[in-house]
Structures are given as structure tokens and as C-alpha cells.
Amino acid sequence: MYEEQMSHYNMLLSRAAYDIVRSDLADTATHPGLFETWQDKLNTYAAAESVIDLYLQQGDYTTAMNKVDSLQINFVFSSYDSVEYPYYQNLKTLQAGWLGQGRNIFDLTSSEISSLSAIADSSRGIAGAQARGILAFAYDSAYAYVNCAQMPDTSQKSVRLGSGSDKHGKSLSITVKPNPATDRVIFTYSLPEGIENGKLMLYNPSGRLLDRLDLTKAQGEIQYNCSHLEPGFYFYSVSCAGELKSGKLVIVR
Questions:
Q1: Chain Cα centroid distance, residue 102
Q2: Residue 247 CA to chain centroid, in angstroms?
Q3: Rounded to 5 degrees, what angle do the CA atoms 219, 224, 229 make?
Q4: Cα distance between residue 215 and residue 198, in whole Å
Q5: Do both 33 and 72 map to the same domain?
Q6: Of 158, 191, 213, 225, which is most buried with the most CB atoms under 10 A?
Q7: Are 143 and 117 in contact (CB under 8 A)?
Q8: In this structure, is residue 80 part of a structural domain?
Q9: What is the radius of gyration, based on Cα positions, of the chain?
Q10: Which of 212, 210, 135, 146 is nearest to 178 (CA)?
Q11: What is the C-alpha to C-alpha distance for residues 87 and 81, in angstroms, rounded to an integer?
Q12: Does 209 lie in the same domain as 127?
């Protein structure tokens, strides 16, 4: 099972490297027509995807979407392609929509972010990789994906050496969902072993403290009403016993 997982991730790694090269070439192409001709001569699924992205970059959204629709006609789909194609089609439809309205990835609506999140969570192919890239770049810690295969735990054979974050046996942790959010979020926290008191703090982008909440249990959840916050980025942190863990919260409407 793990060999199959690692093989899949190696395939994604190779494809990601190829995508980076193609993306750099597309972004710096002084003769887009020659680039398109070259990709068309390759006659591969990946080459067709690069041409679609070129059309989107050039603002030719109709041609881009027509080429998206033609993928299932011009190429024989494997079972993997059949699963991934709807995600890719949805992603390109979203991109054409916001680009056509003169917006960029920093101007997405809550509905668009939710759609990207669904693609990021579900797709194992290029659509998922691009969706995660957009969310991680424009919304930072909201979707900092690291989808690695889970290997068997062999840590029982040795003592794990670490920094101060593990000096109590269990590390300090804090997460917030949903993120991006509109009006309410849930902070889920866990304090180091033996610690039952801490503080959760919320800051605006300039670093001004907006709220401070007392933590009175070793772990738990805190429901927080953020409807009063303006759309944008905010920072949260949890501190206890000289340790600090922080993250970024995105508010959209």
C-alpha cells in the first residue's frame, strides 16, 4: 500500500516539475504563437493544459474554455482522467470567471474560495495542485497543504529529541476552521502535557490586539463570533508556559 502511495506522489512530483518548467516558459514566451504551435505538436494532455493556461493569461477566455471542453474529445481518458477532468473543468471555469471580471486571486468571493477548497480537498491531479497553490499563496496558512503518505510509526524504538515545544511530552497546537471564514470560527487547541492554562489572542494585520481569551483546559474548542471583523487577514496565537503558536485567519464576505 505504501509503495503505491509513494509511487503516486513521485508521479505528482515529476508532473509538478514539468508544470513549473511549462509555466515559466508560458510566462516568458516572447512569441506565444510559436509556444502554442510547439505544445500542439507535442499532442499530449499536459501540453493541451499549458495552452489553455496560455489562453487564460492572454485574456482569450472563450478559446480557453472551448479547448477545455475538447479535451474529452481529443484524448482517450483513463479512469483517473475521468475522475479528475470535472475538477479541472470547474477550476478553469472559475479562473475564466474572475479573470474575465478583471479580478485576480486576491479578490475572490467567499463562494469562489469555497469552490477552490472543494477542488483542493478532492482532486489528486493538476486541478487540486493549482487550487491548493492559489489558496496557499493568496490566503497563506488557510490551505498550507502537505499531502504526504502516512508511514507506519516506529518512534517507539527511540526517544524523539526536540526543542522546547516538546519539553512537556505533548506539543502546543492550535487550528481554526473554517478558514477562510465569514461570521463564526472554531479554534481547536491542545496545550502541552501538564499545562491547563493559556491565552488565545487575536490581532489585526498591523499587530494591534483585538481580543484575548483565557484557556482553562488542557485541550478544547472555542467558538468565536467574527462577524464584526472586516474582510481581510488576521493573526491568532496561543501562548502558555513560555511557548507560542500562531497562525493566520482569513475573513471573506
A1: 23
A2: 15
A3: 140
A4: 5
A5: yes
A6: 191
A7: yes
A8: yes
A9: 22
A10: 135
A11: 10
A12: no
- Grid cell, residue 92, equals 478553469
Backbone φ and ψ of 245, nearest 5°: -135, 135
Nearest-5° Cα angle at 246, 223 to 203: 70
Cis upstream peptide for 231 (omega within 30°): no
Which range marks the domain in which residue 186 is found? 164-251
Q: What is the number of structural domains in the chain?
A: 2
Alpha-helical runs (H) found in 29-143 = 32-42, 45-58, 61-74, 79-100, 110-122, 126-138
What's this model's pTM, rounded to 2 decimal places?
0.51
**Per-residue confidence in pLDDT tens, the chain, 253 aa:** 556 556 655 655 655 555 555 554 444 455 666 666 766 677 788 888 888 888 888 899 999 999 999 998 888 888 888 899 999 999 999 999 999 999 888 788 878 887 888 888 888 888 888 888 888 777 654 454 444 444 444 444 333 334 444 444 568 888 999 988 899 999 999 998 888 889 998 988 666 788 999 999 989 999 999 999 988 878 888 888 777 788 888 888 7
